[in-house]
């Protein structure tokens, strides 16, 4: 059975830019009211797009490496909306490293933002959702499935996020469904040239890059379909197969 998303309350972390912003916009298009989380980049553009759609949208700044800031984020959700139906854990950092020289601080920072923050957000969200339940979607990436020696701390944190998804689905069902999305090449990194970006896309079975909207539509799908939990959905043009 499809869940009607119009009027649902969503929280999307990291929603000021890139994939997080696209997710927020697609949920808004589906009719969700929303608290838009941001940290570095202001969320004015996301808020503007959502409000133009006629949904209610508020924003809140929080450092996702700080448990007190995360608690304040959910206090704001409760203050503004009184409930929560959807949580999307999209905020993340993507730092390079080398296992031979990686510092403990750099290792811990990735785990704090990419794993501990979604863990804490999940706990707070389940409390707010209560008996009415809801849906949680975690945004991982291919590093969490395949690993990258250039981004070891990131890969480990995203792999652990997939396990958190599976354990969350088993722990919080049937009231709360917990799923994950693994995006592939959906948004060109700022430091990557066009030639390299196109070359990466041509490696995939579909021979083309995706977009943030592809991920956003996948999030909407997982939120609507009430028979799905513990799912890890790759949105990657088949890149995982190569």
Task: Describe, in plain words, how this protein is organized in 3D.
The chain is 45% helix and 15% strand. With 242 residues, it is of the alpha/beta class. The chain is globular. The chain has a single domain, classed as Rossmann fold. Helix 3 (67-81) packs parallel to helix 4. The protein has helices at 18-29, 44-52, 67-81, 104-129, 142-146, 152-172, 194-202, 212-224; strands at 9-12, 33-38, 57-61, 86-89, 134-139, 176-183, 232-235.
Quickly give the CATH architecture: 3-Layer(aba) Sandwich
Count of distinct structural domains? 1
Range of helix content: 40-55%
CATH topology: Rossmann fold
* Mean pLDDT figure: 95
Largest sheet: 7 strands, parallel
State the name of the first-level CATH class: Alpha Beta
CATH superfamily: NAD(P)-binding Rossmann-like Domain
How would you summarize what this structure contains?
The chain is of the alpha/beta class and 242 residues long. The protein contains eight helices and seven strands; from the N terminus they run E-H-E-H-E-H-E-H-E-H-H-E-H-H-E.
Name a few traits of the molecule.
Rossmann fold; 15% strand; 7 strands; single chain; alpha/beta; 242 residues; seven-stranded parallel sheet
